[in-house]
Amino acid sequence: MVLGCIVAVLNLLPLLRANPLHCDFQVPQIPDNTTGSKLLGKWFYVAGASQFPRHWLEMTLIDNGYLQVDPNEQGQELFISQHVSAMDECLTSNSTYFEVTVDHVTLIKNVQNRHTVGKLMNSSSEDILLIQIEMQKEKNYTGLYLYARKQPPSKVHLNELRNHAECLGLSEDQIVYAPWKKVKFSLGIRKSHCLVCSVLRHQDTLQLGENKRLQSILLKMSQIAVHHQRV
């Protein structure tokens, strides 16, 4: 009898390790009557993570960026203007908005042939936005964004991002910190991750906007990644 119990517990250990305790607390934020007003204003882009190779590669080009959240006449919708600096180009997108309902805060974005839905997740501070996204393309891809009221973010906030990414099955290699071209050297990363090598299979347009120069840069980075893998 005792032996049977021990075997049963040992069989459960892999499951326990696969689902860390902190994952139980990573649930969508439940809004109250102050949530909408607290979302208004400027939020600085800190980092992102994505399973979608093209999206991941786009994030490596970002030098800095921010969201500007503004009110709408329709109370439950908040306009989002996304501003990004990438490779000396300034890009703006107005295709995103927050929808605040009784149950959750949803981020909705429609760009070209991609439909992205995100949920505002619980966090330790009102000074950060932790947004879990689902991108619909040939299949569903999971991703994550971290925004903050001020820069630089605290170590606590960065650890929240890493913990949440872990719970989603996203590896450390799939997290991109801005500006990536500086951060990657401080982390000791000398060549592109193999994740980039599959990007040539995705021929859709740049998520941040149709920009010929940035698209050519993406193509060149993809070719370099493939070359590194062959070497």
TrEMBL record:
Domain Lipocalin/cytosolic fatty-acid binding: 41-181
Location relative to the cell: Secreted
Gene Ontology terms: cellular component: extracellular space
InterPro entries the UniProt entry points to: Calycin (IPR012674), Lipocalin_CS (IPR022272), Lipocln_cytosolic_FA-bd_dom (IPR000566)
Cross-referenced SUPFAM superfamilies: Lipocalins
Transmembrane segments: none
Signal peptide positions (record): 1-18
Record carries keyword S-adenosyl-L-methionine: no
Keyword field: Glycoprotein, Secreted, Signal
Gene3D superfamilies: 2.40.128.20
Family: Belongs to the calycin superfamily. Lipocalin family.
PANTHER family: ALPHA-1-ACID GLYCOPROTEIN, ALPHA-1-ACID GLYCOPROTEIN 1
Name of the protein in its database record: Alpha-1-acid glycoprotein 1-like
Naturally occurring in which organism (per UniProt): Alligator sinensis (Chinese alligator)
Lineage: Eukaryota, Metazoa, Chordata, Craniata, Vertebrata
